Amino acid sequence: MPRDLQKEDENKEFKRRDRNIETTEPETEFVEEVVEVRRVAKVVKGGKNLSFRAIVVVGNKNGKVGLGVASGREVVDAIRKASNLAKRTMVDVNVINDTIPHTVEVKFDSARLLLKPAAPGTGIIASNTARPALELAGIKNVLCKSLGSNTPLSILRAVFKAFDEIKPPEYYAKLRGISLRQLFHGEEVVKS
Questions:
Q1: I need a labelling partner for 114 at 20 to 30 A (CA). Which of 33, 74, 148, 159 fits?
Q2: Is the CB of residue 98 less than 8 Å from the CB of residue 124?
Q3: What span, in angstroms and rounded, lies between the C-alpha atoms of 89 and 137?
Q4: Residue boundaries of the structural domains of the chain
C-alpha cells in the first residue's frame, strides 16, 4: 500500500474515533422527569397550528429543583426546551432530616396545596403530579394533599410556591430573637 493512502486511512480512523468522543455527553448531576406532554393548538386564519407542550421537573435530589414548561413542533423539542428552562430556574429547598421543617399551605390560581412534615419511614404521600418535584428536591418523607384544582401545571406551580415559603429553622429563631436550642427544646425565654 502506498504511503499516502496509508496516512489517509489513519487520518480517517482518527477522525472517526474523535467524532465518537464528541458525541458522548458528560454525566450531569441533575435528573429530569417529564411530568406531562400534551398536544396544543393555536387557531389561526388558515386553520390550526398544532404543537406539543411539555412540563419537566429537574433536580439533584439534594435541595435543588426546577420547573420548566415549553412548547415545540415536535415532542423532543418541547421536552428539551422545557428541560433547559427548568435548569435555568432552579430553586433551593430547605430539607431537614429528609423532610420539610414545617407545615405549609399555599394557593396558586385554583390549586390549593397542603404540605406537612412526616416521620422517617413514611415516604412521599402525594399525587403523581406533585411526587416528581418532591422526590427531585431530596424530600423523602412528606404528606401532600391537593385541595383544589387537579391541573398538573397548577399543582406543580403550587408546589414550587410552597418551596419558596419553606424557611429554615434559623430564620424563625432569628425572627423570635431566640436560639435554635430554645426553638426546638421549648426552653423558656427570659426577657430582661
A1: 33
A2: no
A3: 14
A4: 1-92, 93-171
Cα–Cα distances in angstroms (integers) from residue 120 to residues 87, 99, 124, 132, 178, in the given order: 29, 8, 10, 19, 27
**pLDDT greater than 50 at residue 83:** yes
Residue 25 scores a pLDDT above 90: no
Q: Which of 126, 129, 155 is nearest to 140 (CA)?
A: 126
Choose among 62, 59, 61: nearest CA to 87. 59
pLDDT tier for residue 190 given thresholds of 50, 70 and 90: low
Say if pTM beats, i.e. exceeds, 0.85: no
The position carrying cell 423539542 is 77
9 pLDDT band, cuts 50/70/90, is low
Tell me what percent of the chain is helix, strand and coil, each rounded to the nearest 5: 35, 30, 35
The Cα 74–Cα 145 span in angstroms is 34
Instruction: Tell me the fold of 1-92.
Output: Double Stranded RNA Binding Domain (3.30.160)
Q: Look at residue 94 and give its three-state secondary structure.
A: coil
